[in-house]
Design brief:
There is one protein chain. 51% of the residues are buried. This protein is mainly α and 402 residues long. Helix 7 runs parallel beside helix 10 (181-194) and helix 13 (263-269) runs antiparallel to helix 15 (280-301). It has 20 helices and no strands. Helix content is 64%, strand content 0%. It has helices spanning 2-23, 35-39, 47-66, 71-83, 96-114, 121-133, 142-149, 154-171, 175-178, 181-194, 202-213, 228-251, 263-269, 272-277, 280-301, 310-329, 333-343, 351-359, 361-366, 397-401. The longest helix is centred in the middle third of the chain and has 24 residues, at 228-251.
């Protein structure tokens, strides 16, 4: 019930913040930035124009913070901030130099607003929405995204994750972004989930965070695959995020949206070329955490009524699917069979069937020479279960890939 309310609440907030974009098309009273600056800006020679961009952006963001309860004004300013990344007479024709200067000016103004404790929640939400919807080169906004991800409001954090998802695919194509901002954003995304383990939208946070850093999911343009070095960093981040969520299963209970906890396994085991690009350490960690998820989720499931386990069993079925894929990649029939057993569990499966199917994963993994270092999962805290008893999980990761 709480999770459903959370989905409704955040959806309502997003609609309140965004609907004006479809309903209102005012021409802002404030003058825009000249098309000359947008198409022919020399950052070193045109310092006056850069200064003008900075002043205009700062004025708009200040006005945004001063009018959080005025929908018409908020809509107008948000449209202005997004629209000025483009040329009025040649949409999308702004120069890379202008886009960088504009994004840097936006970041300075956003950081100033986000640094004030009195800045309203609505303003912070709108900053996330602007970054999410902003076209062009937005890597300079990385510090603002990190700040949003650290916000005390989970609704603001959610938009921070969406903003991160918007800038990462293009950002990781740039060496300067990969030299520092990328890892700061990845760390902040992981922390945003770890610091919000419960609450009505904790599951949404986990889902959005996983999608933001997973190049196999739908936020990532298919035509922009990450380089091997970047992919390795994204794999590490996905595994770290999954590990943080596994601690919730072990110490507390079943978190919201357990399907999100299968996304890392989808990335690492669901595609042979990704698995084959991973280091042996990454492969072992991915397999260990897949086992841990199956074991911990099943242990939680058998301790509850079947009618409480729909999400958990669905996620377990999904995890079984990726274990099957790993078996195919490794040409290991035992792993394929173990994954199939988990994948075939039904919502009404009795506890013993769940135990039997999930406990088959550990010996199957250990029987493969490359995965012989796999260890039995520690049981949930307070449980008397044996560590080598494995179990089921939540919803569906293949839905996200579509």
């Amino acid at each position: 019930m709480n999770r459903c309310f959370g989905f409704y609440l955040v959806g309502l907030i997003g609609l309140m913040c965004c609907r004006g974009m479809a309903e209102v098309t005012p021409v802002p009273d404030d003058p825009g930035i000249s098309d000359t600056s947008k198409t022919d800006l020399n950052l070193t020679a045109n310092s006056e124009e850069v200064g003008e961009i900075t002043l205009k952006v700062q004025a708009e963001v200040t006005k945004l913070a001063q009018n959080p309860s005025d929908p018409a004004t908020v809509t107008m300013i948000r449209q202005w901030l997004i629209g000025e990344m483009q040329s009025k007479n040649n949409p999308g024709g702004t120069s890379p130099a202008y886009q960088e200067a504009y994004a840097a000016a936006l970041n300075a103004a956003f950081m100033d607003a986000l640094g004030h404790p009195s800045t309203p929640v609505n303003t912070r939400l709108n900053i996330g929405i602007v970054i999410k919807l902003l076209p062009g080169r937005t890597e300079k906004l990385a510090p603002s995204v990190v700040q949003l991800l650290k916000d005390k409001s989970s609704a603001v954090v959610l938009w921070g994750e969406r903003a991160a998802a918007a800038i990462l695919p293009a950002g990781v194509q740039d060496a300067a972004f990969n030299a520092g901002p990328r890892d700061e954003i990845l760390a902040a995304i992981i922390e945003s989930v770890v610091t919000h383990p419960d609450g009505p939208i904790s599951g949404m946070l986990a889902d959005e965070a996983n999608q933001a850093i997973n190049p196999e999911l739908n936020e990532w343009p298919r035509g922009r695959p990450p380089t091997p070095t970047v992919l390795s960093a994204l794999i590490d981040a996905s595994l770290k995020l999954q590990k943080g969520r596994l601690e919730i299963y072990r110490k507390t209970g079943v978190p919201g949206a357990p399907i999100a906890d299968t996304y890392a396994t989808y990335l690492t085991m669901g595609t042979p070329n990704v698995w084959n690009s991973m280091t042996p350490t990454q492969q072992l960690q991915a397999a260990q955490q897949a086992l841990d998820f199956v074991s911990l989720a099943s242990e939680r499931a058998v301790g509850r009524q079947n009618n409480q386990n729909d999400d958990l069993i669905q996620a377990l079925k999904e995890e079984g699917r990726w274990i099957m894929e790993l078996g195919t990649t490794l040409s290991d029939q035992a792993i394929t069979a173990a994954g199939s057993g988990v994948n075939n569990l039904g919502i009404a499966a009795p506890a013993q069937q769940v135990r039997d199917a999930c406990s088959a994963v550990l010996p199957a993994f250990q029987g493969n020479q490359a995965l012989s270092g796999i260890q039995a999962t520690l049981p949930i805290e307070g449980s008397k279960s044996s560590p080598d008893v494995a179990v089921p999980a939540p919803p569906t990761a293949s839905d996200a890939q579509q």
